[in-house]
Amino acid sequence: VAGDGEKDALPHCNLQVYTYTCDVGKRENVYLTAERVRKEVGEVSVLVNNAGVVSGHHLLECPDELIERTMMVNCHAHFWTTKAFLPKMLEMNHGHIVTVASSLGLFSTAGVEDYCASKFGAVGFHESLSHELKAAEKDGIKTTLVCPYLVDTGMFRGCRIRKEIEPFLPPLKPEYCVKQAMRAILTDQPMICTPRLMYMVTFMKSILPFEAVVCMYRFLGADKCMYPFIAQRKQATNNNEAKNGI
Hints:
Elements: H1 27-40, E1 46-49, H2 64-92, E2 95-100, H3 113-135, E3 141-148, H4 174-186, E4 191-194, H5 197-207, H6 210-220, H7 227-243
Parallel strand pairs: 1-2, 2-3, 3-4
Helix pairs in contact: 1-2, 2-3
Pathway: Cofactor metabolism; retinol metabolism
EC number: 1.1.1.300
GO cellular component, one term: lipid droplet
């Protein structure tokens, strides 16, 4: 209804937001926090797995502890959060599980082996879980896999593809990714890749011989796109060590 002044504003809603600090890489922490949520807020009907980290080192230069952290946060955490909240969803046959993975969970690149492996793992987990829910005929529980291209959050600052291609594939704005993901969730879309060109890259990777994929990567400048990012991280690490007298 159209009106003047305050009448044009959205109706006031008494919403409450609860926040909890939880190390999702530690299953005991996840289970304890999930129990707190159930007691203080209630049952969870929408689970969004979005936590992600990256080591920023070449494989042979990466400490084992950072590799383990990447796998625990980016992949293993999906098991713990889902095990914590899925039982009630199954009981009610109602809920939505959202896995925020990455385009690097569908096709890989050099230099970020731990990150790619963790995101491939998250995608595999999500797909297997989706099939399990379908096999159990739990049609009231929806799943959505979100695979965005490089998002401009600073996580991969310095990552560069071929300069002639960059205007056509710039880093995505977080707000755009959120809108696309929300639209997919609200319409029960099983999967969303942003931008749409990522669907084509995934399809080409699945049908072309490996050497042809290598040529495509080199043309796009995607074969070594993470190298500037890794170099920046290494330089920042060296500067911090110098400042601290290490």
